[in-house]
Design goal:
The chain is mainly alpha-helical. 76% of the residues lie in helices and 3% in strands.
């Protein structure tokens, strides 16, 4: 436990503290120190890809599917969106704005633009180093595979220690996430409907088991659930914005003023807004953690850079759209009504203000959908990591799924267990091991982006 706590503090506690005018300070953790400079580096190298290539990202997202083997790029985008869009988009955003003020929203947006370039690099590398999947069909891959390729340099080695550590960190992380998911769902349903945790947990685990223990059910279910849940939540936020359209200019003024400490409403002012927005943005969109590349590798696309563009778009969907929906639902409710509240209680109170009791019911259902799809998505990610560690066999695949289902059940009934912290430590270690190779390998992703752009130019010339 002492070692575990030391690792947790190294990853998440403030590593350096920068004093700011007015007596406040800016605390920066190791992960922020790694991910933000790396994201800026990738943004410069890709020539600010999320802005420059946004039209192309949107074009490929709606183009006709023509893959012959494996999943389409859109399907892998849906899988990664399922895991990105979860509890953090609801309670995480509420916590960030509560601690950092409305200005945290601005820094979430900036972090998404930076993280989008990181997501492109890691997803493109995953696509380049993917392998055929003899168990599920199609392809598999992810950081464990490109880390292995980087260190072995083509030599025939079964494992590399860094790749092994990444895969183990991922499997530990997703066990922890499983418990957090079910606890969030059981708490929300108990508060909204008075449903005992044991009942909601059994239903959640039973439905999840039916899906994850079948060979191809995961992608089919996510293809339906994710677009519906995202569209419903987005439409809900649009209704809130339209109903309160007169307040919108003041909300934007508040966001920008508090982002730069012009109007201080929380302790720490600028520093609190900056760090809460950055942390929420980083750990909601997961760019750099190496999780989404496990889905990106499964895509059957005609160029590796295309898979990278899909995942870059996924970061924007998660933070610029879904996280912003939660922020506006909250910021457009009276501040005195929300004073002193936190977490789901704060969000449910805001929804009660906007829609009455049906709003509380709706947010509980949305939370269930977000959490359920996250669990299914992380077990898709686990496939390639289990295969890297234990080889191609159904026994290891099934045993990990059963372990995750057990964690899902325990989490719904326990207020807190040690396993919860595994999610934070796991994703932190994944990020460290992933970033060790991501920067030195980024040149390959940049080269592939240039190839893709040249290919598109050539296609346009032929059509003209």
């Amino acid at each position: 436990m002492v070692l575990f706590r030391a690792i947790y503090n190294l990853l998440w506690a403030d590593l350096i503290t920068i004093p700011l005018p007015g007596g406040s300070s800016l605390g920066i953790s190791l992960l922020v120190l790694i991910l933000i400079p790396a994201g800026i580096f990738f943004s410069i190298r890709t020539k600010f890809l999320p802005i420059r290539m946004l039209p192309e990202m949107l074009r490929i997202a709606v183009e006709k599917k023509n893959n012959k083997k494996g999943l389409s790029g859109v399907q892998t985008l849906i899988i990664s969106t399922a895991t990105r869009v979860g509890m953090g988009n609801l309670v995480g955003v509420v916590a960030a704005v509560s601690a950092g003020g409305a200005g945290a929203v601005f820094w979430m947006w900036i972090t998404a633009l930076i993280g989008s370039s990181t997501a492109y690099v890691e997803a493109t590398l995953a696509q380049k180093y993917k392998q055929e999947d003899p168990l599920y069909g199609g392809y598999r891959g992810g950081p464990a595979y490109y880390i292995h390729a980087f260190f072995t340099k083509g030599k025939q080695k079964r494992f590399h220690i860094i790749a092994v550590l990444f895969a183990l960190s991922g499997l530990l992380c997703w066990c922890g996430v499983s418990q957090v998911i079910s606890n969030s769902v059981s708490s929300a349903f108990e508060n909204a409907f008075g449903v005992p945790p044991i009942v909601s947990t059994i239903i959640l685990v039973a439905l999840a088991a039916v899906i994850v223990l079948r060979k191809h059910a995961t992608v089919k279910v996510l293809d339906i659930v994710v677009p519906i849940m995202a569209a419903l939540y987005f439409c809900l936020a649009i209704i809130v914005i339209v109903k309160n359209i007169g307040m919108l200019p003041d909300v934007f003024v508040r966001i920008f003023e508090e982002a730069f400490g012009i109007r201080q409403v929380v302790a720490g002012g600028f520093g609190a807004a900056l760090m809460n927005g950055v942390k929420r943005g980083l750990f909601s969109n997961e760019a750099g953690s190496g999780s989404a590349p496990c889905a990106a590798a499964a895509a059957d696309v005609n160029h590796p850079a295309k898979s990278g563009l899909f995942q870059a778009l996924g970061v924007l969907i998660d933070t610029i759209i879904i996280c912003s929906c939660t922020a506006f639902i909250m910021l457009l409710a009276p501040a005195d009504l929300l004073s002193g509240l936190s977490g789901m209680e704060l969000l449910q109170t805001a929804m009660m203000h906007h829609f009455g009791y049906p709003g509380v019911v709706f947010i509980a259902i949305v939370l269930w959908l977000f959490s359920f799809s996250t669990f299914i998505g992380i077990l898709f990610y686990a496939r390639s990591n289990v295969a890297y560690l234990f080889g191609d066999n159904w026994k290891s695949q099934t045993l990990y799924k059963i372990l995750a289902l057990v964690m899902l059940f325990i989490g719904g009934l326990a207020a807190y267990t040690f396993v919860w912290d595994l999610s934070d430590v796991g994703i932190g270690l994944m990020t460290i091991f992933n970033m060790i190779v991501l920067i030195p390998m980024s040149g390959q992703a940049i080269k592939l982006l240039k190839e893709y752009q040249e290919k598109k130019k050539e296609e346009k010339r032929k059509l003209s």
